[in-house]
Write a structure and sequence with these properties.
This protein is an all-alpha fold. The chain is built from 17 helices and no strands. The chain is globular.
Length: 464
């Protein structure tokens, strides 16, 4: 069930590791897409807007859980790459403790503070009851959201990105059936949509635990593994919180931006909700590449395979840019029709605003591609400072640009916020990666000189 990413052709390994991640993330988006389609079609535009009014807060939970779990998987991948299974289990235990505290905090803040959070976003009064209901149920299931992302990240850290995909497919199909049952049959309204997502993710958690119990002995923790040191807990918390913040920067910025969007009225909120659903699906391949490269780099860092890191990141960046151009073309050709699926007939103004958002964002996906790859590579090397700084810059740019431009430009100001934020975040990441790349070159030369002088035994070529 496990696979080392430290031997074999780097590009082939990265592609094969990315594909299940890509498909898994696509199915995970089905949670949100199914909810949005059913709510918009069966409950109307106002209910769709109510769900959309809490969309940035939902995205905040998903983004933080995914980022934090990926960060806590880096020490696990590094230990596994070095062949130290005891250190691997202790890294899992440290991550589990941190993940439990994160899940508890998310659940308490989300359920007890849903009304206050929505009020801070300036949610229109007519949308508040449904928005609060949806958000309360959604955050009540925060434990299973964090749990599934954490367990999936631990499995992927050992090189298996396929099995979490299978579980996501099962949960996604179940979610579609449950959301139809809860809304169309039981008439539970927007609460039913949120409850369907929570229930489906709960099934995913159970499947992960069963898999670990019977098929992945490397992740079966013993009593001694839980006696982790302060350093191990500190590393799990540092990487988890840092990457959780970086992944949720988009959501935090979107939450600030939501304030400006809400001031534009129900049609603008519905348009942003529909366009964002399409946009999130479109960028999934790029985000998946970023997660894959962080695991690849972490495992090879543990094995001291410096050349493989440099080569893998360079080729992955080229591949991601090419993929982004294909995605841009697809979004320009079909994005508007897809956005139209989320609203009923006759909502021409909503569709027109969604079209504007998708055209502007889609044309700059190549910037986002490089951002994901270089950020993932730095995180895989254990660097948190520069990615965090880049995340702060992205957050400030997204919020400031959006709020400053919404008043004079209307919905156009909303569409410009994300692309300008990507550019702002890319600058420090690019500089940091090229400095890191130079250090890798120096490390590779030092290793070669040590082998040549007889200080170290010659190692097999890593150019595989």
């Amino acid at each position: 069930m496990t696979k080392s990413l430290t031997v074999g052709p780097p590009v082939r390994l990265i592609i094969l590791f990315t594909l299940p991640l890509l498909l898994g993330n696509l199915f995970q988006q089905l949670y949100a897409v199914a909810d949005t389609l059913v709510v918009g079609r069966l409950l109307g535009v106002e209910a769709l807007a109510a769900v959309g009014a809490s969309g940035s807060l939902q995205f905040l939970l998903f983004g933080f859980a995914m980022g934090a779990s990926t960060g806590m998987g880096i020490p696990v991948a590094r230990a596994f790459g070095s062949g130290d299974l005891r250190a691997t289990r202790r890294a899992v235990a440290a991550g589990a403790i941190v993940a439990g505290l994160i899940a508890l905090a998310i659940t308490l803040v989300g359920t007890l503070g849903s009304h206050a959070l929505l009020s801070l976003l300036g949610t229109p009064a007519e949308l508040m009851p449904d928005a609060q209901t949806f958000l309360s149920v959604f955050f009540a299931g925060g434990v299973v959201t964090v749990g599934f992302n954490f367990l999936s990240s631990m499995i992927r850290a050992l090189g298996d990105s396929r099995t979490p995909l299978v579980f996501l497919i099962i949960a996604s199909v179940l979610n579609v059936g449950l959301v139809l049952l809860f809304i169309a049959v039981f008439r539970w309204g927007v609460a039913g949509a949120a409850l369907a997502t929570v229930a489906a993710q709960g099934i995913s958690v159970a499947l992960c635990l069963v898999l670990i119990r019977f098929r992945i002995p490397q992740l079966r923790l013993r009593a001694a593994d839980w006696r982790v040191g302060r350093g191990e807990l500190g590393e799990a918390a540092r990487l988890g919180l840092s990457m959780g913040f970086q992944m949720s920067v988009i959501a935090i910025g979107a939450a600030v931006l939501q304030y400006g969007i809400n001031s534009l009225g129900t049609d603008a909120v519905a348009a942003f909700t529909a366009a964002l659903r399409v946009d999130q699906v479109a960028v999934i391949p790029l985000a998946s590449v970023g997660v894959a490269i962080s695991t690849y780099v972490a495992q090879n860092r543990g094995a001291g395979q410096w050349w493989r890191i440099r080569y893998g990141v360079r080729q992955t960046a080229l591949m991601a840019v090419g993929l982004s151009l294909v995605l841009s073309l697809a979004i320009l050709l079909f994005g508007t029709d897809l956005a139209g699926l989320f609203v009923g007939p006759g909502e021409h103004r909503v569709v027109a605003m969604a079209h504007e958002y998708l055209v502007i964002n889609g044309s700059l996906y190549w910037v986002l591609a490089l951002l994901f790859v270089w950020r993932g590579a730095l995180q895989g090397m254990g660097s948190t400072w520069v990615p965090t700084v880049a995340g702060v810059m992205e957050l400030l740019a997204r919020a400031a640009v959006g709020l400053m431009l919404v008043a004079p430009l209307g919905f156009l100001g909303v569409t410009l916020a994300a692309p300008l934020a990507w550019v702002g975040a890319l600058v420090p990441l690019a500089a940091a990666w090229f400095l890191q790349r130079r250090r890798l070159v120096l490390a590779e030369r030092a290793l070669a000189e040590a082998e040549a002088s007889g200080v170290l035994e010659p190692v097999a070529s890593c150019r595989g």
